[in-house]
């Protein structure tokens, strides 16, 4: 049975000036209004039940209209149920009206005035300063914290009072994070870090690294070693010995099969990249000005460790390899960076990306790298010449990855590169890089490089 009859629709149409509405239209409209009406009531009942109430309110209907994307009703916003009264204008024509509460003006006038509300205000205070909570009225005190902890653990009232009384004599600050280490672990951490930074006792350093590599009970100390690594790299960029020991620590922690080091990879990457592509590593007193600077061997070790990191964690972190490749490529293409930075970035690109990185990222940029970075520096002699030579050797080393055979074919090594291939190779990678490629790989490697040039 329809709640809204066709006659009701016809009466409403007549009241708004719509004449001659066909019976089919009034019937369809009455059915649609009845459907919408039941839909709104159903949604309203859902809000009533979720509110754990038995009385339907106007707010429930407003919420239902809002859910159905219909403009809600205005007025009648009250938490009390709305009461309607009925008045009869004639036989069969009741009129419903909203019953209003009668107000006695005498009682209203004599009623006490409500309290004036306080103005809205706010104040700022320090919750913590360098990890320590200051003792101000807005923050909980040590006594409050002691009582709360004791109550949580099920302590007696006497223990809570004694704990509160004892805490009053302590400094009124507390650390935000509590990480309790046993005395044995604290002593172990101190001994290991002191041993690693002692250049006079190589046996003790090796013993400390072996312990980091094999011991299974270092889970609690792992964040402390990560912090130790970051601090030492930040404050000892001129000390190659400290930087080398830091890399050894990272390598040992990565090789320990009992440590879950994945959450700390993001904290270990910056120290490794600093040792890899840092612009100023070591001091001028580390060499005599003619030999290769010591930071080149440091960059070799950092590239190897970065390769180990990507091999272990690239599958679990899909953005690790792309981010490292972008960083290394940016340093490799920079014309303002020193030769050592280019050397480290070149090794890292090959170590992380393998053959595909050499083919796509390194080979097309070798000629510009030689022209903008290496040309002219070899003629300066001394340390600069040694750095340029190391870069050329690094180019030969990474390009050698393109050759799948590990042992060079003797016949192809004895075969000389043709003039046409040599000219094409020099135009592609530059004369210096072309000479190094011929030296390390012969005809076989030259053909691989030319295949890359020709897109094969």
Give the rounded overall mean pLDDT.
79
Which bin fits the share of residues in helices? 55-70%
What's the architecture of the domain at 261-404 in CATH terms?
Alpha Horseshoe
Query: Would you identify the regions where 5 or more consecutive residues have pLDDT less than 50?
Result: 154-170
N-to-C SSE string, H for helix and E for strand? HHHEEHHHHHHHHHHHHHHHH
Tell me the major beta sheet.
2 strands, antiparallel
* 3D shape: elongated
Strand content: under 5%
Overall description:
It is a single chain. A two-stranded antiparallel sheet has the order 1-2. Among the domains are: 79 residues, Orthogonal Bundle (Histone, subunit A), CATH 1.10.20.10; 144 residues, TAF6, C-terminal HEAT repeat domain (Serine Threonine Protein Phosphatase 5, Tetratricopeptide repeat). The chain is elongated, with a radius of gyration of 40 Å. Helix 10 packs parallel to helix 12, helix 14 packs parallel to helix 16 and helix 18 crosses helix 19. A hairpin with a 5-residue loop joins strand 1 and strand 2. The chain has 19 helices and two strands. It has 456 residues and is an all-alpha fold.
Topology (elements, then pairings):
Layout: H1 6-15, H2 23-50, H3 58-67, E1 84-88, E2 94-98, H4 105-110, H5 142-152, H6 157-167, H7 183-196, H8 202-214, H9 222-235, H10 240-255, H11 265-277, H12 295-313, H13 320-333, H14 339-362, H15 366-374, H16 382-399, H17 410-414, H18 419-429, H19 431-453
Antiparallel strand pairs: 1-2
């Amino acid at each position: 049975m329809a709640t809204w009859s066709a006659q009701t629709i016809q009466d409403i149409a007549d009241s708004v000036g719509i004449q001659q509405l066909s019976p089919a239209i009034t019937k369809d409209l009455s059915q649609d209004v009845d459907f919408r009406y039941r839909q709104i009531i159903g949604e309203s009942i859902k809000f009533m039940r979720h509110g754990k109430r038995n009385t339907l309110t106007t707010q429930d209907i407003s919420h239902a209209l809002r859910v159905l994307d219909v403009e809600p009703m205005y007025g009648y916003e009250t938490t009390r149920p709305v009461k309607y009264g009925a008045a009869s204008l004639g036989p069969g024509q009741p009129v419903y009206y909203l019953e209003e509460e009668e107000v006695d003006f005498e009682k209203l006038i004599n009623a006490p005035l409500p309290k004036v509300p306080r103005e809205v205000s706010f104040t700022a205070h320090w919750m913590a300063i360098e990890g320590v909570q200051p003792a101000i009225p807005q923050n909980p005190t040590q006594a409050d914290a002691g009582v709360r902890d004791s109550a949580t653990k099920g302590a007696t009232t006497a223990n809570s009072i004694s704990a509160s009384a004892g805490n009053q004599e302590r400094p009124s600050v507390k650390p935000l994070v509590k990480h309790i280490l046993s005395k044995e672990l604290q002593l172990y951490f101190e001994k290991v870090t002191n041993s690693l930074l002692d250049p006079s006792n190589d046996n003790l350093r090796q013993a400390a690294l072996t312990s980091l590599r094999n011991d299974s009970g270092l889970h609690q100390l792992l964040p402390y070693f990560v912090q130790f690594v970051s601090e030492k790299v930040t404050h000892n960029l001129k000390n190659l010995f400290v930087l080398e020991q830091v890399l050894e620590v990272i390598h040992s922690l990565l090789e320990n099969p009992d440590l879950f080091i994945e959450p700390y990879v993001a904290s270990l990457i910056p120290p490794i990249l600093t040792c890899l592509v840092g612009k100023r590593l070591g001091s001028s007193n580390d060499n005599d000005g003619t030999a290769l600077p010591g930071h080149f061997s440091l960059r070799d070790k950092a590239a190897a460790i970065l390769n180990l990191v990507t091999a272990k964690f690239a599958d679990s972190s899909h953005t690790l390899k792309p981010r490292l490749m972008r960083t290394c490529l940016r340093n490799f293409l920079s014309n303002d960076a020193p030769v050592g930075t280019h050397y480290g970035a070149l090794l890292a690109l090959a170590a992380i990306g393998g053959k595909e990185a050499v083919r796509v990222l390194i080979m097309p940029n070798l000629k510009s790298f030689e022209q903008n970075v290496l040309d002219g520096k070899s003629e300066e002699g001394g340390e600069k010449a040694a750095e340029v030579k190391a870069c050329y050797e690094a180019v030969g080393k990474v390009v050698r990855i393109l050759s799948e055979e590990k042992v060079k074919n003797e016949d192809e090594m004895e075969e000389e590169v043709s003039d046409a291939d040599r000219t094409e190779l020099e135009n592609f990678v530059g004369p210096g890089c072309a000479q190094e490629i011929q030296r390390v790989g012969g005809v076989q490697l030259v053909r691989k490089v030319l295949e890359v040039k020709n897109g094969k």
